[in-house]
Amino acid sequence: MIFLQETFNLEKKVKKTQKQKYTKSKIKILELIKKKSFGFIQDLHQKDFSDIYQFSEKLQKFENVLFLGTGGSSLGGKTLVSLMDNIFINATRPRVFFVENIDSSSIHGLLQNIDLKNSACVVTSKSGETIETIAQFFFVLNEFKKKKISIKKRFFIITEDKQSTLKEIQESENLDFYPHPIDIGGRYSVFSIVGLIPSKTIGFDIKRFCNGGKSFLKEIENENNFDYYFTPISNLINLKKKGVNMSIVMPYHDSLNNLSFWYRQLWAESIGKKGKGITPVNALGTVDQHSQLQLYLDGPKDKFFTFIEKARDKSVTKLDCHYSKSKTFQDLHQKSLEELLNAEMNATIKTISNKKIPIRRITLESYNEKYIGSLMMFFFIETIFSCFLLEVNPFDQPAVEEGKKLTKRFLKYNE
């Protein structure tokens, strides 16, 4: 197995009442995978990395690279970058920044603290009409204009190759253009140029990452392997009848924290339709043991937990706690932070398990681009499979369109 999956307080086999729907959905998704019917699978198998390598070489000439975009246009790339980057010191060359929100104070603060003459900007919107991203573009553009810095060869556009506001900007300003795959939605775009260009820019091995995704697809061609990976989610969905309607994803490593934010969007936008769905909540061990765990243990029993851990780091530093003979010092003496982290995760899992709350534990046998690629592809397929089980479309998001229309109406009203 590419990664290990252990479950607690969850049926080991598909329940008889679910068997027919499970089998039907399994046959359907395996056939679609075999035919490469999903856009992200077609793109993965037709991947030509030369354009991405050339693009990243352009970006690597700069000291700073700003990625403008929101939702799926940023979360995948941000996740991959965070797997490589130190969370305390952004010391990579170039330094990479993700501008996701439209808070003028935070964007202005960033622009005031970097050298714009040595900065590039990548603007990403699949539709080319994302109003937040276009607003970000003009905000940043204004700062460049104030300092009389040309944006040519500094600004790059990723959008669909069709008429749109962003495409019009790109053509009018004669900016470098890179097409966003038409048949890949934002939340499924991490294996495309959208996720690969930020990560490649800081040295992430994108070929190894994509090979990890392909390896997982190859592995689940075996039906026993498919059942190993996807029986737990089928049984979780069956628990909805008992009121389990929240999915807590809790990695136990800082570098995996953004993965839970990426997963949250993937799951929520795909499955939340027609009054159906399971609400995703992201947490981080051990931090959220001190903020959320009380509710999880002593509150409503309406949650399912996914803990994610990576293989232990063998090069660890032991703590020298020589100050006194107190119990706390003795417990920590000659132990590493990794050992404490692992002990806390095991204790949390055991405590939750004792409450008869359903849990799964995912362990990455190795921590590199290939295994991360496999894990993210697993989440893709798990999400789509779950949508099939609930009979909802995993690729649209019709409910948010009303909010987009109202935003433009309120903008006009406030003139």
* Biggest β-sheet description: 5 strands, mixed
The 3D shape can be described as: globular
* SS content category: alpha/beta
How many β-strand stretches?
Answer: 10
CATH class type of the largest domain = Alpha Beta
Radius of gyration: 23 Å
Number of domains: 2
Remind me, CATH topology of the largest domain?
A: Rossmann fold
Helix content: 40-55%
In order across it, which strands form the biggest sheet? 1-10-9-7-8
Number of helices, counting only DSSP H or I runs of 4 residues or more? 16
Report the mean per-residue pLDDT as an integer.
93
Distance between the termini: 58 Å
The SSE order reads EHHHEHEHEHEHEHHHEHEHEHHEHH
The low-pLDDT segments are: none
Strand content: 5-15%
- Gross CATH architecture of the largest domain: 3-Layer(aba) Sandwich
CATH superfamily of the largest domain: Glucose-6-phosphate isomerase like protein, domain 1
